[in-house]
Every structure is written in C-alpha cells, then in structure tokens.
C-alpha cells in the first residue's frame, strides 16, 4: 500500500475522544508497527493528528484532501497549493532529494530553510546537531522542536495558513542581521527564466532570503522543471546547486548546467516509497 493511501486510512480510523492504538492500526492496515509509528509521527508534525503515547487521536476537521473554502483562500497565496496537499505529491522523489541534501550539512552551519514540502522533508530527517536554522515554515519549526541542539530563528510576519508559512512584506531587522552559509529553497518551477513562483509576496520574501545566503541550493523534483509559473525569484545564475530526481531529461540537464548550476540527480529508492 502506498503511504498516501495509508495516511488517509489512518486519519479515517482515528477518534477525537479516545486513543487509537498502534496495535489497532497495525491490524487494520496490515502494516508493520514501525511503519505505523513513523506515519503517526509524520502526520503529527504535519498537523493531521495528535500523537500520544501508544497511538494517536483525531484533530477535529483534520482530513487529507479537504476541500478549501472561500474563507480559507483569503489567507492563502496565489497559485500555491495547500501544504497538506503538496507534501504527498511526488513524495518519494522529495524524500530522495532531501536525503541527498543531507550531504551539504556540516555541524555549526548557519542556514536558511525556506518554506515548502521538499525543504520540509530535509528538516524532518536532519540530525540533532549544532546547526543555526532560519525558517519561514511552521511545519519545519515543528519538526525541529525536539532537536535541542539546533538553534531555530523564525522571522516575524503574517501567517499564511494553507501554506503554513510566515511572510513579511516589509524590511525585517532580524533578517538583515542573519548570515547563512547555505539557503535551501524549493520552487514552483525552474525555467530558462530562473527560479519561478506565482505569488508576489512570496517572491519578495524569497528574494530577501537569497540575499542573506552565500550559496543557494534548490531542492525540486523533476516535475518542477519547465512547469508553469509567471514570476521570477532569481535568475539561473544565482542558483549554485540543484538537487532533483532521475525524471530530469538529458535536454533539461544540459541547459541547467550551461547556466553554471551544479545539477545533482538522485535515484528514488524503495525506502522512499
């Protein structure tokens, strides 16, 4: 069973007034206890359920694939899917990309991890080491809470609930004093015009973050290459490294490398499925 289907079944089995145990879910879904525990931990970090000792409980209104209402869209970004929907799309590729990005981490490193689902995958598997992380992402913040050796900075601004990120349209004094060795960033698309997004506020925020980093590392699955998007965050010449999956075509790899980008292609392993 693919993990997306397993997650949906787990949510459906939970109750808001009692704990559904790992043993119950194991018997119901036919998965191993280790798999169920991992699923519960990931769903808890994503805000889909409440993880408690021995199992989990339902959060009222939690449902994977829940339709977005007009009220929700008032606090959303243009052209950006809700975080909970995006995180399960191309998830095996995102996990493989995140695993490869671990090679770029060094103890003591100061870094920016921008909001997004592939960057979230990286944060979720980072070791508990002496990193200094600035992030705009609530799920990334939640995933790092128990890793006490990692220092986390969260800039101020407005919360966009669907995408689970905080953006500030104004100059931020804290940000101006933060210097990162690397910035890990996702993308709505990567085209010959550069790293692309669909919302002007998101573009403004990411441009300011890029200015604070010595090196820009883009984590993007191959579906993002030449995908539709209208606003440029930065030209290709400002991207140092792109980590993507083996779905990248030879033609696309050539024009990316011609722009001076170190393109790293990773294979999707069985453990990513």
Automatic annotation (TrEMBL):
Gene3D superfamilies: 3.40.50.1360, Winged helix-like DNA-binding domain superfamily/Winged helix DNA-binding domain. GO terms for molecular function: DNA binding; DNA-binding transcription factor activity. It holds the Pfam family HTH_DeoR. InterPro entries: Carb_Metab_HTH_regulators (IPR050313), DeoR-like_C (IPR014036), DeoR_HTH (IPR001034), NagB/RpiA_transferase-like (IPR037171), Tscrpt_reg_HTH_DeoR_CS (IPR018356), WH-like_DNA-bd_sf (IPR036388), WH_DNA-bd_sf (IPR036390). SUPFAM superfamilies: NagB/RpiA/CoA transferase-like, Winged helix' DNA-binding domain. Residues 3-58 form the HTH deoR-type domain. Keywords: DNA-binding, Transcription, Transcription regulation. This is DeoR family transcriptional regulator. It comes from Asticcacaulis endophyticus. The lineage of its organism: Bacteria, Pseudomonadati, Pseudomonadota, Alphaproteobacteria, Caulobacterales.
């Amino acid at each position: 069973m693919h993990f997306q289907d397993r997650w949906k079944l787990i949510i459906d089995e939970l109750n808001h007034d009692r704990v559904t145990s790992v043993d119950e879910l194991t018997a119901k879904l036919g998965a191993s206890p280790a798999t169920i525990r991992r699923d519960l931990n990931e769903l808890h970090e994503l805000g889909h359920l409440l993880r408690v000792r021995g199992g989990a409980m339902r959060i009222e209104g939690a449902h994977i694939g829940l339709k977005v209402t007009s009220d929700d869209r008032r606090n959303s970004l243009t052209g950006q899917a809700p975080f909970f929907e995006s995180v399960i799309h191309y998830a095996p590729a995102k996990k493989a990309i995140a695993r490869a990005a671990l090679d770029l981490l060094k103890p003591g490193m100061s870094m920016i991890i921008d909001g997004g689902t592939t960057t979230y995958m990286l944060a979720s598997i980072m070791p508990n080491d002496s990193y200094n992380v600035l992030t705009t992402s609530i799920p990334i913040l939640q995933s790092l809470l128990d890793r006490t050796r990692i220092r986390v900075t969260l800039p101020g601004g407005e919360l966009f609930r669907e995408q689970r990120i905080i953006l500030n349209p104004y100059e931020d004094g804290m940000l101006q004093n933060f210097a990162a060795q690397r910035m890990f960033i996702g993308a709505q698309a990567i085209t010959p015009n550069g790293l692309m997004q669909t919302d002007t506020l998101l573009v403004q925020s990411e441009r300011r973050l890029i200015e604070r980093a010595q090196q820009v590392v883009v984590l993007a699955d191959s579906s993002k290459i030449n995908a539709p998007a209208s606003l440029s965050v930065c030209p290709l010449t400002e991207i140092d490294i792109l980590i993507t999956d083996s779905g990248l075509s030879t033609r696309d790899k050539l024009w990316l490398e011609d722009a001076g980008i170190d393109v790293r292609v990773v294979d999707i392993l069985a453990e990513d499925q």
